[in-house]
Design a protein that fits this description.
Elements (H helix, E strand, L loop, with lengths): L4 H7 L1 H13 L9 H40 L2
Length: about 80
Amino acid sequence: MEVEEYRKLAENPITFMLEVIAPRMFKALRKPSSPKAYTVLIKLGLDTKKFNNVMNFISFETELYRCIVFIKVLSK
């Protein structure tokens, strides 16, 4: 990052990440309104949804296991 960019980052981190950092990191996002950029963003959204579903399942499994252990402790 350039020295001048730190102020912009501090003022509005989300906008800075979307408009400056992401295009530097991902070539497809350098032209924000291009079909390629839209395709990448849609894929990102779908993959994020899949990730969230997996994490929710893991959380559910963990809570279920805790309940089973708790019931076993109480039944002793």
